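ok so I'm stuck.
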Amino acid sequence: MAHVPHTLDADAVRTWSSLALAALDRAREDIDAINVYPVADGDTGTNLYLTAEAAAAALDEVFTAPAPSLAEAVRGYAHGALIGARGNSGTILAQLLRGMAEVLAEESGTGAGDAGAGSGRPLAEALARAAASAYQAVAHPVEGTMLTVAGAAARAAATAGEDAADVARAAYDGARAALEQTPGQLGALGRAGVVDAGGCGVVAVLGALWQALSGEELAPEPVRGPAVPVPYEPEPCAAGTGEGPAYEVIYLLEAPDTALPPLRGRLDALGDSLVVVGGDGLWNVHVHVDDPGAAVEAGIDAGRPYRIRITHFADQRRRARGERVQRAVVAVVPGEGLAGLCEEAGATSVLARPGEPPAVGALLDAVHRAHAREVVLLPGDAAWRHTAAAAAEQARAEGVRVAVIPTRSAVQSLAALAVHDPEGSFDEDVVAMTAAAGATRYGELAVAERRSFTSAGICQAGDVLGLIDGDVAVIGAGLSDTAEAVLARMLGSGGELVTLVLGPEVPDALADRLEAYVREHHLAVDTVTYHGGRHCAPLLIGVE
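replied:
not stuck anymore, here's the structure
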């Protein structure tokens, strides 16, 4: 089926996004299968797809406003990729999109359809900026990777004419040719007889760009190795070891530009595969290390890290081979955003609606999906503890060692996950997670459905109820005032970290107000904010 050709405008970006996501979805398993560099963990295709999916979701948000401009579309697309970047390949893809967005936004100004927006020159310049910025983002660029493919695409685009579709086609053809040469440039690829997995993703994304601008179909190409065997000469191993670092650490970081050079220096000394992308105070940090705690501490010293994700490569490889890992965490959460947070922290999540306990079978299925010899189960609600206990009993009967930590709120589960140590002993891990959950006071906002008696007095239908540790402590008329009153009470007995989880229809302005309150009245307390997603309460508060 042919597509309608586009000039390079906001609609073209949306079409490109859709086609790129579909192309990466088709190719993800094949790309995963040839993933051998920088770590043979079989997830490059998946990481590229998830990054593109996050970018597409952000772009959809841009289109909720009438007639967005090209500048708004490309910035939204790149920002979504930055926020949702997964793995080494996804992080580099995010920087490629950011580099393109910088040029296209400059060219188009703030209005749609500005002069030159449909020509090939801005697109060629955007591809050149993308490749250059991606090389700069990687601490130690290596040829034979997606950087090489992106660079070749940019050089080919520079030789094309003034038509945007012709430029996109030249970039696509240049990328394909460069991809075929990658086994001769990088020893790990030559030994395996495959092309670079990340480079395959670049080719897919550029093919989608040409489709969007030309309106023509692109025949899907199988992901394959080189047609002719290439000589292999092993490259020096990263970090001076035989296997490289054991962990991948990724986090978003709010920090000034001046904090980045010392951060890069510290992280580069800790491991390898360092990629730092972003700008304007928001960065996505990716590194492979043996000491993930030190990598996170470096981020804390530089600014405010959040959405921290730590992956143990050995566990990831075992799961990919269908083998059991030693230990996993299963968390029950009342919101899609919370489920994503737990997944990013390495847990297997079970989504449940408030007031509707998950079935025992759903929890048992999650234990099976975790594929571990030992499982820590976090129910996340006092009402779901018995269901969790029943699932644990059945899992134990199947030979799985299970401990249920009686978390009574999602914020307690997040606190427990933050100290989870899969390398320590099971008993010590359970004790540490239980202590972290128990040391976290939890609050919640809810809206009264009818007139009733509470521990704080009589409430009317529509009143905002502020609960602390499960009991109604504040009855208010507005969300913001009630939230601040609850937070003030919770911090009255001290605290070091405030966690805010916003419900699906709660504006970010509420978090801004609460963060400002904490800064003004509790200087030594840090604040992190997450979005809970559908089914989450209007606001969850944790004080550790």
